[in-house]
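Bumping my old thread because nobody answered last time. Still need a sequence for this structure:
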């Protein structure tokens, strides 16, 4: 049996209907002088009991969990918590994963390797995203917000707007369901066609007209 002096336990389940009894019993048997418990998703970093436990830890303490996924649900979160423990001078041990023991040189080395792998994965993601965007641009793919109006709609509206004085903006707008009378008026007086981003800003008569539709 793994028995630890001055150890602090942390037990977690994801939902209120699940029981903490098995974890609580195991941590108590292993000599935890205090066990922090909560029923919350492991993907959340702002877990109240986790924060309280981290504040409670002192140099020389060891955090004990039954499994690493009770503490963190991703490598990034595990490394983040392990670093917080290191800053406090505390260690980490997992019952189900004996290699995850930062109180030993081997355990610290393994976590260092994990950190390197996680950093490598992040670099690959950034590189793949960048390469993907460059490849898409070379194929003519445009990034950013889509234009409020298509080029054909713009051309059609301008053509119709030439007869604005005789038939009126409302008649023009009725012939194009995508356009309001305000946009027709704006097309007559403004040559620039704004995109969705400009519409959100609402800084011009045309952009305000686009936003109104």
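Sorry it took so long. Here it is:
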């Amino acid at each position: 049996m793994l028995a630890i002096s001055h150890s602090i336990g942390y037990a977690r389940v994801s939902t209120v209907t699940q029981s903490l009894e098995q974890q609580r019993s195991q941590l108590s048997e292993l000599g935890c002088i205090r066990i922090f418990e909560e029923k919350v998703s492991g993907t959340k970093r702002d877990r109240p009991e986790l924060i309280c436990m981290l504040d409670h830890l002192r140099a020389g303490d060891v955090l004990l969990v039954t499994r690493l996924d009770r503490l963190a649900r991703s490598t990034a979160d595990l490394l983040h918590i392990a670093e917080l423990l290191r800053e406090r001078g505390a260690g980490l041990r997992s019952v189900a994963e004996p290699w995850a023991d930062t109180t030993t040189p081997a355990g610290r080395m393994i976590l260092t390797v994990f950190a390197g792998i996680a950093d490598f994965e992040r670099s690959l993601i950034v590189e793949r995203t960048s390469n993907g965007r460059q490849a898409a641009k070379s194929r003519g793919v445009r990034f950013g917000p889509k234009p409020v109006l298509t080029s054909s709609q713009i051309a059609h509206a301008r053509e119709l707007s030439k007869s604005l004085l005789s038939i009126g903006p409302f008649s023009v707008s009725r012939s194009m369901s995508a356009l309001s009378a305000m946009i027709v008026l704006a097309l007559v007086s403004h040559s620039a066609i704004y995109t969705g981003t400009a519409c959100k800003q609402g800084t011009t008569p045309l952009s305000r007209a686009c936003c109104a539709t």
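The beta strands are 7-13, 32-39, 62-65, 91-94. Let me know if any region looks off to you.
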